[in-house]
Amino acid sequence: MRMHITLLARPADDFDALDQDHGGSLDAANSTVGAPSVSGTAGLVNALTPFDADELRETLRAFGRSDLASAFYADIPAARLFLLACFLRVAARVIEEGYRRDQDASREGRPPSGSFNPASHRYTPWPGLPVEASVALIRRASDWLDSVRECGCVVYARRRRGH
């Protein structure tokens, strides 16, 4: 049985990762409902991510960024939102630049290096995922974390057993 984790934005003053049930029931784990267009904290209360959190974790892992993928298994306090969003933007840029570099290398007859992980200083082979879509997913996650932070919210990770 697989564990599904849905990320949910809530006001920061409600944040108590140890003792509090985060309220309400989410029937559709990993829903791709975007953040409402309403501005302010009220617009993000109970807002699900505009991306599939499981897909984001799998994508980050596939590109050798397990360090970032692991951040999305737990609640994300306000103090970490900015830093995590920055790390995601850097990861997207590194993946994109590495892919372009390897495309140029292929045209010149050189072997590709793969995806570089700055945390481990290692290259991993390119996964069988579309790079452009993967980079877009990572950037969507970064933008969403920025929106959550700007509204004074935090991110809760809701766990639910899958089928």
Mean pLDDT across all amino acids: 75
Trace the largest sheet across and list its strands.
2-1-5
Distance between the termini: 6 Å
Number of domains: 1
Order of helices and strands: EEHHHEEHE
The overall strand count is: 5
Helix content: 25-40%
Question: Helix count, per DSSP?
Answer: 4
Given as residue ranges, the uncertain stretches (5+ residues, pLDDT < 50) are: 16-46
The biggest beta sheet reads: 3 strands, antiparallel
Q: What would the principal axes of the Cα set say about the shape?
A: elongated
Quick overview of this protein structure:
With 163 residues, the protein is an alpha+beta fold.
Structure notes:
This protein is an alpha+beta fold. It has one domain (3-161). The chain is built from four helices and five strands. The strands form two sheets. A three-stranded antiparallel beta sheet has the order 2-1-5. Strands 3-4 form a two-stranded antiparallel sheet. The longest helix is centred in the middle third of the chain and has 30 residues, at 78-107. The model is unreliable at 16-46 (pLDDT under 50).
